[in-house]
Structures are given as C-alpha cells and as structure tokens.
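Our consortium's second objective concerns turning raw sequence data into structural hypotheses that experimental partners can test. To show how far this objective has progressed, the report includes one record in full. It was chosen at random from the queue rather than selected for favorable results. The single chain below, 440 residues long, was entered without modification.
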Amino acid sequence: MSVLRKLSRRIAARPRVRASLVVLGGNVAGAGAAFAAAIVAARVLPIDEFAAFGVGLAVHSLAVQFGDFGLGTVAVAETAELGDTKAARAKLRSLLLHRARTAIAVALLAIGIVYLLPPLEPYRAAAAVGAGGEIFGAVAYFLIWSLQGRRRFAIAGSLQGMQGGLRLVGVAACAIAGLGAVPMMVAYAVLAPFATMLLAALLLFARSQLNEADDAAAPAPVEIDLQRRRTMALTAAFSAMVINGDVLLLAMLAGEPEVAAYTAAWRFSSGVLLANTAIASAMLPFIVTAPDAWGEAKLLARRGLALAGGWFVLLPVLAVAGPLLLGAIGEEARTPLIVLLVAFALDGFYFALYQIYLRVRRERFLLAIAVVELTVMAVVTILLQAEGASAPAFGQLAARVAVCLLVVAPIGLAVAKRCRWFEQPDAPIALATECKSSRA
C-alpha cells in the first residue's frame, strides 16, 4: 500500500503525467471498444462485407482527418496559450464555425469521390455512409481536443471512452439483428459521433458560462492566426492521407481478400497509434507554454525514446495476441500486423518530439515532414504491391523511419551549434532565428 501511495503522490505532483494518464485511459477505453466493434464485424460478416466495412472505416477516418484541417491542433495550441477564459471561448467559437463549414464541404467531396472512383464500387454504400458521418465525427473530435486545450482532461478522456462504447453497442446490436456492413457503418460512423458531439458541445460551452463572472474584465479575444491555420490545415491533410489513405490505395491495387486482411491488421495495431496520439495530445498544452524550448526538446526526446522502447517491449505479446483475436482472418493479417506494430511503435518517439516545433512556431517544417511521409508511404506501397496486404504496411514503416530522421535533424544541428530554433529569443517566439546550414 505504501508503494501505491508513493506512486499516487508522484503522479499527483506531475501534471503532465496525470493528464497523459487520464487522456490515455479514455482513449484506450474508446479505442478498445471500437476495436471490439471491428472484431465483432470481422467475426459475423462474410469477407466481402467486412472488406466493405473496412473501407468504410478508412473513408470515415480519412474524411474526419481532412475535415479537421489542423483545427484540432490549433485549438489546443492557441487556447492553451491564452490565460483568460473569455478570450479562449471566443476563439473556440470562431474555430468551431470553421470546423463545421470544412466538415460539411469535406463530407460532400468525399461522397462524390466515392461514387466517381471505379475501384471503390464494391464498397460504395458503406464508404458513402462513412464519408457522411465525417460531419459529426470531425466536430466531435474538435470539441474533445478543445476540452484538452482548456485542460479538462478527465472530461475529454471520458468522451473518447463513451464514443467507443457507443460504437461497440451499435455494431453489436446490428450483428445480433443480422444486419450487414452498411447498418454497422451507420451505428459506428454516424450515431456514435453524433451523440458524442452533442454532449461535448454542452460540456465545453455550458461549463464556460459558469466562469462568466471570473472573466468579465478580460481583454478582447485574440484573432485567429490564419497563416498558422493554413499551414496546419495542409499538414493535417497530408497526415490524414498517410494514416488512412493506405487502405484506399490498397483497394485500388489489390482485391477484397487483401483489403480485408490489411484492414483487420490495421484495426488491431492502430490501438498503439491511438495511444500515442492520446499521450501526445495531453502533453501539447504543456509543451506550447513551456518557457525553455531547448530544455523541452531534450525532455521530449527522452520521453519519446522511453515510449517507443515500451512499445517494442510489448510488441511480441501484441504480435501473438493480434492474430488470435482476429479469428479466421488472423493468419492472413499476421505479417502486415507485425510490420504495422513496428511502425506505430516508432510513432511513440515521433509523436512526442514533433510537437516541439509547434512551440517554436515551425509549422512549415511539420508540413514538409508530412509531405515526405505521404510520398514515402505511397511510393513504397506501389513498388511492393506484389506483397499484397503487406505492401502498405511496409510503406507505413518506411514512412515512419523517414520522419523520425527528419524530426531529430534540427535537434542534432542545434547540438552542433548549427541551428538556433530552440534558443531563448529576446523577441517573441514567432521571431526565432532560422537554421543556419553554412559554417559560422
């Protein structure tokens, strides 16, 4: 008991660890429930129906990421930098309007693409439902990230868990009723995000009203940094294509069995990806307000290595458990699953470290990284298409190796006194000096 008490005191004294654990807990619960929903679908649907369900999930996730246009990260970063509730609330309302408009536009565009691309014809109905559900998923995602930006980590984590639970209940109900992929997609991509969106909006803005008296004398809201938003929008678009475009690319290069096997592998291994995202998002409000950028960069490098190392320790267990949980399709999914686990373990390092470039306002560097990541993933997948379901997995792994090298390059240059991005400037953060590649 004394050990537990000491551990609880240490966690309570470290707000970043506490926030990360709270958000991680909610995300793990939500991701676990969503994965269980995919397992239910994999076990009850025939191969062609599950392939359609998998493509629908990929379209939904891709559309949600596109609908984000970087606003989730902007919401966390910029509201965390604001000290008063009134200004933060005004900025969130303005960003929410941007989010709603982009979500509707992306949904319409995604549905149009689904019906225009001939390779998606076998999956068209489920994919269209996933694309339409993006409206609710994107807004719910934004509201949850906004709650994290206001450091309401427990609420944000609980909402993530609730959304996953609703997805599991909906898909399980469809399975019991003997319904197919399309009704399951309605439950997963439309009904669950819609309920989460409504509750998140109520908690975010109704809670703010309670603090109205505290910020009556607050200064006028800060304007949205449009240049930052545009850059993060492009970064989010390229990142979305990296994370979710692999399934769609495989659908154009291979048949339904390969798509089904890769989708099953991705759904299991993405739990590592979601855990990394949860930890990184909980750390972001602390990172963007850190007074010492260089000290923060070194701290994040250490934590990223520790996180990636932890995943590699767990990798053998996950590699054995994954195919067993996936059932009949598990054997076909084994190789892509193991490769994806390695790729997403590397993400633990990358996700922790890349956020320092938001602190030093180097969003264009993050955009360049996202472009390289997508290019590497797509090129490797196409070159290795003969590998079937494993091709996009190797593409994801190659992309992760490339971005890890890129994300540490400025830090290595800083150690060699060739980069000044992380120095404490006399001017504001946004005016930090550029990297110098030439000799002094």
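The partners drew two points from this record. The CA atoms of residues 45 and 180 lie 7 Å apart. DSSP finds 15 helices and no strands in the chain. Both points have been shared with the crystallography group to help prioritize constructs.
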